[in-house]
Amino acid sequence: MKLFNKYFVGALLLGASSLGLTSCDLDEYNPSNEGADAVFASEQGMEGLVNQLYYNYKWKYFGREDPVLYFEGAGDIWANVPEKNEYGMQLTRFVNLQGDRGQVKGAWERNYDNVNIANSVLQYLPTTKGLTDEVRNDFEGEARFTRAFAYWWLVEWFGDIEMRTAGTDEPKFTAVRTDRKVIYDEIIIPDAEKASQMLPVQPYKGNVGRATKKAAYGLLARVCLARAQYETAGSAEQKVFYQKAYDAAKYVMDNKGALGIKLYKTYDEIWQAKNNKTNTEFLWVVSHSSDASLNPNPKNPNRLHLYWAPRLTDRAGITTSGDSWEYPKESVLLMPTYYFLKLWKDWDIRYEVLFQEEFYENNRRGSYTWEQGMADNYNAVPELVGKTVDNDDVVLCFTKEAVTTEQKVAAANEGICLVGCNDTYDVGAVNAQGGCRIRSDIKTKYEAFPRFRKYRIWDRNPNGTILLQAANGNVGFADAPVMRYAEMPLIAAEAMIGLGNPGAAAQIINSEIRNARVVKPGHDLSEAQVTASDMTVEWILEERARELCGEWLRWFDLKRTGNLVNYIRQHNPAWDGNDVVDEHNNLWPIPTTFLDKLQNAEEFGQNPGYDPYVRSN
């Protein structure tokens, strides 16, 4: 009889008790030294195993720093802030990225963990007693959803890898690569298809964060779009996958009501903190509990609000304290590139929803008077020194527009330090693709750029929802959206372009994305509408940047369309010229720790372009 690993039991229990706000009443079940056959033959044991499918996503991915760096920072719309130019540069700019990086090891191991758990669910589920057909289908659907999602990440990151379709209870010391197209065709796409048929509309036991039918259709659309990249452009073989991607996305678009999707009237409502826990446009979220003890990482569950802000605390009198929700604790990490800031048009209300340019005084003493030293941090005009700003008045303004000295003086006379994009970016050297470097003369002096507020923890309502335990702490408990409705029409439109029907693509964009709710008051809807001639993959990439920024997809988008290297070099050039990204970075290196365990490591091999594997002993 196979014994159930005690470490795995502990992880099961944590996964079972931390799925979301409503899952804290799940009973713990400790199988002790029972065999796996006996444990998973019971409904309670199987439920614990299925719960474990979500553990890694909550623990190390959605809400944490590393995925922000390698999914969004490793692209063209976000750059390392000047003070952290070398922080995580292996992940964001591929500098010295090799197989010994801990993040590479973690990504490999955690996703194979999920594959192994999903395989175990599928292995033991047929012999689990006492399950209704609905619950059995739900559990199988969740396992297939997770396995498809994990393999999608793995093949996009690492290319041709080992394909495992059965649980592994004992160590393996050999591995054989399988062509990534085979993994897509035999596991990823079939699993997503089956999950879309088997999963219910409502999550199991009402636990927000579990996979449901809308998430499975969304995943199916994603992976079919990704699969198309591996066929010859314009070929009949490629069009098969574009059609599959379109069909899955269109199903979600056509069945919003049946799937429990309801679109908000305004774009701002999507991102309001009060709607986070019950959001009707999110297709799948990773949930984090307000009871920190229920989260796999109680001290750092969701920190997304930290990573996208300029340094504001202790600047110009701004303070962070226990009740200063306007300025929560910062972890200054990524800033928008010049290219990204210039993608936004005047009519587009999404920019105002997603970015904050004006910052308000909250000095405990009731006002702030500009001092020379602080003004010097922003290369401010002399007129600013000595000006006083009252609480709740604007004290800093970081704008995406270029500003003149006259504009700065006018703002200074009101006590406002105005910083334009020309103060932060080298706008005199914008290249033909619209990108330029951050100015080297300010790299350690200050951070002045619009604050990204998609992952807000407060709606500026004193009596409203707050998704953070303390303004000066790390413990945020907002749910992290992994998949959102707007991605579906963008996938459908891209698929239509691939199928040679740009007119249909434009119609989808105009009705589902560029509709009235994204147009500012005072502007006309016609300014936002597109035509068939606009519909190119390059345009889709621009619109995905605007609509899906910060949603874990930019690296995948650039890789899928063959633009990773060119777009990073042209849209996001490093301030010091250290642009080492090359075509081999379309894949990550195989982790050294994995190769060290293989008897046939040399045969399995390292991915091209990285240091060849050399056994350490």
What report would you give on this structure?
It is a single chain. With 617 residues, this protein is mainly alpha-helical. Helices cover 39% and strands 6% of the residues. The protein contains 25 helices and 11 strands. The protein has helices at residues 6-16, 36-39, 43-51, 55-61, 65-73, 89-92, 102-124, 133-158, 180-198, 213-227, 236-254, 256-259, 267-271, 338-341, 349-354, 372-377, 405-412, 421-424, 487-498, 502-512, 537-548, 554-560, 564-571, 592-596, 601-604; strands spanning 78-80, 282-286, 334-336, 355-356, 358-360, 367-369, 388-390, 394-398, 417-419, 451-452, 480-484. The strands form 5 sheets. Strands 5-8-9 form a 3-stranded mixed sheet. The chain has a two-stranded antiparallel ribbon with strand order 1-3. Helix 17 (405-412) links the parallel strand 8 and strand 9. Helix 10 (213-227) packs parallel to helix 19 (487-498). The longest helix has 26 residues, at 133-158. It is globular.
The radius of gyration is 25 Å
What does the average pLDDT come to?
A: 91
Strand fraction = 5-15%
Number of E-type strands: 11
Strand order of the largest sheet: 5-8-9
Basic shape: globular
Poorly predicted runs: 1-33
The tally of helices reads: 25
**Content-based structural category:** mainly alpha
Q: What level of helicity do the residues show?
A: 25-40%
Give the N-to-C terminal Cα separation: 35 Å
Largest sheet: 3 strands, mixed
